[in-house]
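User: Show me sequence and structure for the first protein, then do the same for the second.

Assistant: Starting with the first protein.
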Amino acid sequence: MTMRAKLSLGGAALAAAAAGAWVAMGGCSTDPTVAKPHEKRDLKAEEIRTMLTSGNFKQKLEAKDQIDKLEPEERMRVLTALSTDSDAAVRLIAVQKLKKSDDPRAKDILAKLAKDDPDDTVRDLAKP
């Protein structure tokens, strides 16, 4: 091994030791607040409605998952409002969730959508 290679290895070992000491002294601590914006949190009913009607696809998907976390009465209020939205995609989300609901009001809303919705797909999916 040449002297240059030995010095190079020695320098690398010294750098590794210095990095290890820096980490051991807390130089590489993590800030838990950095990850908080990426944590999923439970949304309130109004936030869900806003996200579903925002037009942002990623927000709509996140809000769709949150509907099931609402209390039953609030869930029905949100789904009732979504079933009358001007956007057919939002009404389709309402239909999907209403079909899984045990609430008797869900069947009434689905029947109305199956009969009167202006969108063919919404009408078809709302049918029993």
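Switching to the second protein now.
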Amino acid sequence: MFTKIKKFISLPKEEKTLFLEALFTSFLIRIYLLIVPANKVERFIQKKSNKIKPNNNFSTETIYLIRKSIKRIAKYSLWRNLCLEQSLTAMIMLKRKKIPYTIYIGAKKNNEQIIGHFWITAQSVEIVKKGSNDIIILKEYSNF
């Protein structure tokens, strides 16, 4: 426990800030998903994916740090934090920084069962990974 706290304290300021932002945002997303019916989630994504004037002053390093933060919170959060929560968290973080993104909704068939999956990319970097190649893209939303 103390080694993890020491590790967090030793992180650069930008990584600590992004980690805390991702943790807080992920928590709010999880509460939202518990309260709001599933059929309203797509409307939420559409609303958040309004066209933005991209910030051209960001670096791809920022995108990689956001991806790293998302992975960290998925590992350490006390609540469910799967592809949907991770993608929505990343979407909100990218939108705040005015970084263009594309969020995908997909599905695949697995033993007579259909499994849904969400993933998100920014500047061709997969923040939440697509996973297997047999996932079919059902919808995609971009904010650029």
